[in-house]
Amino acid sequence: xxxxxxxxxxxxxxxxxxxxxxxxxxxxxxxxxxxxxxxxxxxxxxxxxxxxxxxxxxxxxxxxxxxxxxxxxxxxxxxxxxxxxxxxxxxxxxxxxxxxxxxxxxxxxxxxxxxxxxxxxxxxxxxxxxxxxxxxxxxxxxxxxxxxxxxxxxxxxxxxxxxxxxxxxxxxxxxxxxxxxxxxxxxxxxxxxxxxxxxxxxxxxxxxxxxxxxxxxxxxxxxxxxxxxxxxxxxx
Length: 236
Fold this sequence. Notes:
Helix content: 25-40%
CATH class: Alpha Beta
Number of domains: 1
CATH topology: Nuclear Transport Factor 2, Chain: A
InterPro entries: NTF2-like_dom_sf (IPR032710), SnoaL-like (IPR037401), UVR_dom (IPR001943)
Order of helices and strands: EEHHHHEEHEEEE
Radius of gyration: 19 Å
Domain UVR: 81-111
Domain SnoaL-like: 117-234
Pfam family, one: SnoaL_3
Strand content: 25-35%
Distance between the termini: 31 Å
CATH architecture: Roll
């Protein structure tokens, strides 16, 4: 996979939250313009959990190769959490036969590629929402080909530079911030998968804003890591 480091900066509509950051950007991060989220006021109608799609929103879709099947990330996360709770209860009750069956179900969910990619995407937004830089460093693939495009900023390539950009973001915002997702779709083929969604971001003292995001993941030694995040401001 080849990521170009020559993306053109995106001009965002002005708002109370789209002013450039005044903090000097570290010299190790070659940002063309300050990182910011462009904002436009609007009403929100989606669940506050970042991994959820509301039923009235566009359905979550999962595609692998040329086949399609309905797959909601909310159901995936809820099922996994419920199974983990049931497993703990079965072990406490020493019901080992039931515990074995639950482990089989959890293994099936874990091995399912689309489920795993959606779970990795949900983890990415959990880390983002909480400003968890250490978690970001673990979730991103440690490779030269990783790239990140923050809204209104040129593309950044390479693990160290991408982490430098997230360090700047984590220092600039007061966390936690609110991130809601709409129109989540996941596509997987082999060891590569990507998720598209609309981000609705709100931080303290700001208005609502929308970004269209594409998050790409690659499977390394059986584990899914994010290798590309591209968020672009949308005015729709």
